[in-house]
Design a protein that fits this description.
mainly beta, Methylamine Dehydrogenase, Chain H, Recoverin, domain 1, 5-stranded mixed sheet, 3 helices, globular, binds calcium ion
């Protein structure tokens, strides 16, 4: 990874930062040592601080931890002391609305981001807010209301003098950059082909050319210039509803896309809109109604609402075209190397490999020890050769075979993988990776852990834990 290891020197100790969703550029990897292997509610607990409901993840900067939560209509941002877990300050805004949420989503699902000093938080029911390290509100940028079937979830990204946010929704998706000092919009780029996405963008530094921001979305990975927001290139081949963050490493991007109904692909594609209208538009209104569709053709996903994107009860051309593409999409893990100065559709030139087995749904991939790792519902851990895309090993983690929403992280020669039921497994990587421990935290986990020297921070359903081996700092 290019020049992004950010070290902050406190008085006598060296604290590595973890500045946004999955730490350094979403990679989930930290250069740390002395991480705990055995821990639990009564073991290796340095501190535990109760926090309100949320699925956002903790971030680390200087002597602070930032985290969001919600209670009734209050959207809360916490600053905790990194050493003790004590709440240094707590700020909240009232939400003006309550968006519809998937039962596992929450009003506080986006992880904060920091530029090393200030914090940037996003709530789907409000928009963006920035607080100073002292807890003073610097600016607010109301956004929305959004039209996202399952509620918003992507996290903001701090990039130089700006904050970038993906606002993927059922209609009128866009990518936004605002001035980090003022909250004023710098650019806004439409993502017309994208519906209800949840992926947090990744910064990408090509060998030649300026900084880019890469966002997985419906059927494609897309790259934009950080400076102006214009779309630079796309790679086709993802599935329709993306929750995972792409990984950037040495000029290569790794992305996954899993959506219901795309595991096998569709042998017989649906007809284009004009043709389907000619066949089935019984009431001649130029739209497709549920009762006009042959149910044997309408079987994937099962949710009319997920297809009727503008929620008006019928399908128009855009909605049918999207559904048609969805029926032929394949779930996939893929690697791409964009050519120098890449522009437009670079699928044929850039895709290094595709692997369609054991693709995770919500949990993002991890690149560690030269291997790409994925964790799928059922506790299915897969290691893939990052160069060839060949599966090295797939096996279930014993005693942790439930669902996975938290993303894997790695450091100190170990992988940390948290299941929904609160089983946090520690894995020793290698050709024949092995499970070192399965630690039961006895509460659900949806957030992604944060790592620093000797310490592991984990948000459970009710609290933020700091685990460590005694006074290891
Ligand atoms: Ca009709
Ligand atoms: Ca419609």
């Amino acid at each position: 990874m290019k020049g992004r290891l950010l070290i902050l020197f406190a008085t006598t100790v060296c604290l590595a930062d973890w500045r946004g969703f999955r730490g350094d550029n979403g990679a989930g990897v930290a250069s740390v040592t002395g991480l705990p292997v055995e821990f639990g509610p009564k073991k290796s607990v340095l501190w535990r601080t109760p926090v309100e409901r949320g699925t956002s993840s903790p971030i680390l900067v200087g002597n602070r931890i930032y985290l969001t939560g919600s209670k009734a209509d209050d959207l809360v941002t916490y600053a905790l002391d990194r050493a003790t877990g004590k709440v240094v300050w707590q700020q909240s805004v009232k939400r003006p609305r309550a968006e519809a949420l998937h039962k596992l989503n929450a009003p506080a699902s986006a992880t904060p981001a920091t530029d090393g000093q200030n914090v940037y938080v996003f709530f789907g029911d409000f928009g963006l807010i920035s607080y100073s390290a002292e807890g003073k509100e610097r600016w607010r940028l109301p956004l929305g209301p959004f039209s996202n079937l399952h509620g918003m979830a992507a996290s903001p990204v701090a990039a130089g003098d700006r904050v970038i946010l993906a606002c993927d929704q059922d209609t009128e998706s866009f990518l936004l950059a605002v001035n980090k000092e003022t909250g004023k919009e710098i650019w806004r780029t439409k993502r017309e082909a994208v519906v209800h996405g949840f992926a947090t963008p990744t910064l990408f530094w090509p060998e030649n050319g300026p900084e880019q921001i890469v966002v997985p979305g419906s059927y494609m990975l897309a790259s934009y210039s950080v400076a102006k927001g214009e779309e630079l290139w796309t790679v086709r081949g993802l599935s329709w509803q993306i929750k995972t963050t792409a990984i950037a490493d040495n000029g290569v991007l790794y992305a996954t896309g899993w959506a219901p109904g795309a595991d096998a692909g569709e042998s017989q594609p649906l007809p284009p809109y004009d043709q389907v209208l000619a066949e089935i538009d019984a009431n001649n209104d130029g739209k497709v109604a549920p009762e006009e569709i042959n149910p044997t053709r309408f079987k994937h996903g099962g949710s009319w609402r997920a297809i009727d994107l503008n929620n008006d009860g019928v399908l128009d051309s855009r909605e049918w075209t999207f559904y048609r593409a969805r029926r032929s999409a394949r779930n996939v893990t893929l690697a791409v190397r964009p050519p120098a100065n890449a522009r437009g559709d670079i699928t044929d030139a850039a895709v290094l490999w595709r692997n369609e087995r054991f693709v995770p749904q919500v949990s993002s991939p991890l690149l560690y020890a030269g291997v790409l790792w994925t964790i799928k519902d059922g506790g299915i851990l897969t290691s893939i050769d990052a160069t060839t895309g060949k599966t090295l090993k797939t096996a279930r983690i014993p005693n942790a075979m439930d669902a996975y929403y938290s993303s894997p992280v790695a450091g100190d020669g170990k992988l940390y993988v948290a299941s929904e039921a609160g089983k946090l497994s520690v894995i020793k990587p290698g050709q024949d990776w092995e499970v070192l421990t399965v630690n039961d935290l006895e509460e659900n986990i949806y957030a992604t852990p944060a790592l620093e020297n000797g310490r592991l921070y984990v948000r459970t359903a009710a609290a933020l834990y700091c685990f460590g081996a005694g006074d290891s700092k």
